[in-house]
Amino acid sequence: MSALRVRGPAAILRGELTVPGDKSISHRAVILGALAEGETRISGFLAAEDCLHTARALAAMGVEIDGVGEPEMVVHGVGLRELRDPGAVLDLGNSGTGMRLLMGVLAGQDFAATLTGDESLRRRPMDRVAAPLEEMGIQVTGQGKGCTPPVTVHGGKPQPITYHTPMASAQVKSAILLAGLYAQGTTVVIEPGPSRDHTERMLRAFGAEVNVDGLRVSITGPPRLRGQEIAVPGDISSAAFLLVAGLLVPESRVTVREVLLNPTRAALLDILERMGADIQIANRREVGGEERGDVTVRTSELTATEVGGDEIPKMLDEVPILALAATQAKGQTVIRDAAELRVKESDRLATTAEMLRAFGAQIEELPDGLVIEGPVHLNSAKVNSHGDHRIAMMAAIAGLVAAGETAVQDAECIATSFPGFADSLGELGAEVTTDE
Ligand code: S3P
Question: Does domain 23-231 have CATH number 3.30.200.20?
Answer without folding.
Answer: no
